[in-house]
Amino acid sequence: xxxxxxxNQGVTGSSPVLPTNRMPSYSPTVIRRSDPTRVEIEWSxxxxxxxxxxxxxxxxxxxxxxxxxxxxxxxxxxxxxxDMRQTELTMVGNYAISMRFSDGHHTGIYTFExxxxxxxxxx
Length: 123
Ligand SMILES: [Zn+2]
What we know:
Blueprint (H helix, E strand, L loop, with lengths): L27 E5 L5 E6 L4 E5 H6 L27 E7 L3 E6 L7 E3 H6 L6
Antiparallel strand pairs: 1-2, 2-3, 4-5, 5-6
The protein binds zinc ion.
């Protein structure tokens, strides 16, 4: 028999408020709206992601933009106006952001994981 360390070894009873060690790359440190057509996110691991409002509008994951039954996107990101603006960006819990777009759309909830995975530069 090979002896393994038990998983619980070294774990104390008190858990940290923010388990940052569990999801380091999906924790933003800064969310910057340097201008109305852009959102920039700096991550706790030093990475940076920049979206245009039009890109975010095209990525909208809400039920009105993506069919819940087929997963098919109902809006074509290429059809989104390039001068799309975002306003009223708000935090949703500590895991996502929500915003209103200049076309009135505001039902999308963008989790940080989703945003990082859809980085337009693919990083
Ligand atoms: Zn939507």
